[in-house]
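Pasting two entries for a bug report.
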Amino acid sequence: MTEAGWLAGKNPGRMLWSLPRDASERKMRLFAIACCRRVADLLRDEWSSVALEVAEMYLEGQKTVKCLEAGYTAINRVFRRRGHPVGSPERFAAHAASCATCPRAPPHRYDAYFAAHTADHAAAARGRPLPGGRRSASGRERQAQAQLLRCVFGSPFRPASIQPAWLTPTVAHLAAVAYEERAMPSGELDAQCLQVFADDLEEAGCSDADLLKHCRGPGPHVRGC
């Protein structure tokens, strides 16, 4: 895939598989969770939402792998017990959450791919279960997922790098605030907060035009941004 194809891409699956072999596994899982959060209204049980939060905390070193495993087990237990009909949006959403929280170490891009894939089907099936499990993907949802992928991974052709000199106490504080202050259950970061962060980052000496433009953009921005 070319850089132009990446920047204009609307097929998150193809984009995901075009990432380098050493692409961050942490970002893979954050992308998967972000896709699930787009269909959070279809996760009818509290365990699914809690498991997504636990998975995020695990990625920040705030939870152990045992907690991640417990969340994954809980999702699958509730899923089996409730028996959502085949082809229902709830079943697709639960499957997506299961993929996103899978305790595989390290998380494989297959998990991210199937989390996005089934979240896409969940969005497409909203209000109209797909008979016989037939799947109908949503072009709008795939486009939104492609945007999330660009937010989390940036451009693999021009990786962003942060110079230590830019990380003044003010910049570090704003980065932490932007990361924590987010809308739930979508998990989107506050765009205005990121714009202020970009201004301070530039004042600290950042000259990366792509990085500053992204932070000042409308988003959506999610964890891993």
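Entry 2 (this is the one that rendered wrong in the viewer):
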Amino acid sequence: MGKCETATASIGISILLSDIISQINETNFDLIKEMLTNGYIEDGNNYCNEVYDNILHSEKFKGKYIDVKEYLMEEFQNTCSHEECLFDKSLLVPLKQILTNDRWGYDRYGTNCISRFIDFDLSINVEKYQDIKHFKIVFILSQRTF
């Protein structure tokens, strides 16, 4: 069986992991945990997301907010991929998907493309994140292989 590569364009939030982890408290813990779970690390091709996924799949990520905060601070500060510590990387959280394209097969070469009329609203509702500081609204292009 072949593999699937999916490219997705979205509008979302960008925030440094150091900024979001430092804000974890009892009140916003569920929201930040949701952001961490739904987001990706911004990296070109440096395996940061593989390292990030391993940290989030630990049993320690399922504890109380103070324990999870401590665990994530330590892991993100001390875990590096290609000499880049995760603590200094940006978390990208897609909020509104604009366009997606799948490519199926084995090792394929060439170009795939897709289009969409510009008939959609580019605004997003960030009211849910009003108590989170230091985030920016960004355009996100992600590519995943399954």
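Dev reply: Rendering is fixed now. As a check, the viewer should reflect this: The helical segments are 17-22, 29-38, 48-56, 65-78.
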